[in-house]
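Homework help board

Subject: predicted structure for assignment chain

Our instructor gave us this sequence and asked us to write out the predicted structure in token form, then describe one feature. I got the tokens but I'm not sure how to describe them. Can anyone check?
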Amino acid sequence: MFKLSHKYKQHSGPLYAVEFSEKLNLLFTGGGDKVVATWDLDKQENTPFSVKTDSAILNLKLINDQHIFIGLFNGNFHIIDINTRAEIKFFPYHKSGVFSSTIVKEHNLLFVGSGDGTISIWDTIEYKLLQNYKISEGKIRAIQQVNDTVYIGTSEGDLIKIDCDNVSLATKVMVHTSSIYCLAKHQEKNALLIGDKDAHVSVYDVLKNKITISIPGHNWPIYSIEWISNDFFATCSRDKIVKIWDAKNLEVLQRLSFPKHKGHINSINNLKYCTSRKQLISIGDDKQICVWEEI
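My token output:
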């Protein structure tokens, strides 16, 4: 169970992106005010590291705890060295917002999903483009690695897979009943959790290639699924609620909302669990960063 520990309210725009470095004990946040801010969760304050961009920040991803990937609403993305604060690479590549990304450390790969319906795949050693695909007419909001395969969810509800040993081939494996907004690898099964536009949580078995269960999860689209441990995960939604779930039974254990839990008053757009601190971070349209502590 969780309770609100504290809030940060220093951003001046809606928040969409959050990342945490366990090694550096550093929280990264970004959104509509075009600033990547960082936070010392022990001191509960800003740190000097920040990045000003020329467009709203939609996506953040750590690369080997050395670089931070910053995906922007205008389709561009930056790679910034965290230690030196220097820009390593700048790519004006996509034609629309960079909504999603994932790092495959074992293969030194960066997958980037865009609002223009394209996926680009980059080498993280030299940051060279390896492959790109046009796989949707809408936004690519969800990308998730499962072993040596990367799965991509589209706005049409298609689930696409790409083998990391052969990124030149993309295969459609399933058509979902709703736009896929988020994906998360199941901690104990060969499966994916899917959060969709119709507010359902579904379990996709990657071996059987089918949905095994799908249940109503929220009142509005589900924007993020974040694991807390092998037994529990959290979801957030446009309905302003964070839910804590029992992973085995897919039962809701707790609803973190306003005013009862002093949570968010607008759409909650993303989640990040800080394993070493046992804290769940939520961010949203109300410009607030909520830090939830396990009790």
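Reply (TA_rk): Your tokens look well-formed. For the description, you could write something like this. The mean pLDDT is 96. That's the kind of observation they're looking for.
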